[in-house]
Amino acid sequence: MLQATHRFHYSVVRVWNRAGGVGGILFVVSLLLVVAVGPLTNPTPEPAFNAPSSAFLAFARSADSRLDLLELIGIAGMFGFVLFAAVLCARFQAAERAWTAPVILVVLATAVLSTLWLAEFGIRFAGDFRRASLDATSASLLFGLANGIFVVSWAAIAGFLAAAGIAALHYRSMPRWLAWSAPVIGTALLLTVAVPLTFLWFVPYFLFYMWVLAVSVLLLRS
Question: For the chain, what are the domain ranges?
Answer without folding.
Answer: 12-221
